[in-house]
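stage 2 :: seqdesign
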């Protein structure tokens, strides 16, 4: 089962503390939600391609406060970056979660191999 890596110091990391300071108690759950979403749908590069601020906040991280506030705080705290195209990108995604792409590729190849065997058995 694919999984994300959570640093043992995450809860006490300066970025996490900064995010809590910016958004309030409970904000520390936001980055893990973002990372899980990204791992499922944007594992290749960590780019939230096609997602607006509203989509990131409402659908991805389930932000409960004023619109625009959470994404801005994630950028300010260093969890998100904005690339040259204006796309939000999870900071250091490949360094921390690049293994997810390897797992997905491996699973895809294994499935193709299984289906190829089934196809050969049917003929």
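stage 2 :: out
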């Amino acid at each position: 089962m694919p999984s994300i890596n959570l640093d043992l110091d995450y809860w006490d990391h300066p970025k996490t503390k900064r995010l809590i300071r910016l958004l309030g108690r409970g904000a520390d759950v936001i980055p893990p939600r973002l990372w899980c979403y990204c791992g499922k749908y944007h594992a290749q590069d960590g780019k939230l391609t096609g997602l607006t601020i509203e989509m990131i906040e409402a659908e991805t991280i389930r932000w409960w406060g004023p619109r625009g506030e959470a994404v801005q705080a994630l950028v300010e705290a260093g969890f998100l970056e904005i690339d040259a195209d204006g796309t939000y990108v999870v900071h250091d995604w490949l360094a921390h979660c690049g293994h997810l792409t390897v797992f997905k590729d491996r699973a895809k190849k294994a499935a193709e191999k299984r289906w190829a065997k089934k196809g050969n058995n049917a003929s």
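stage 3 :: structure notes
- The longest strand covers residues 80-82.
- Strands lie at 80-82, 88-90.
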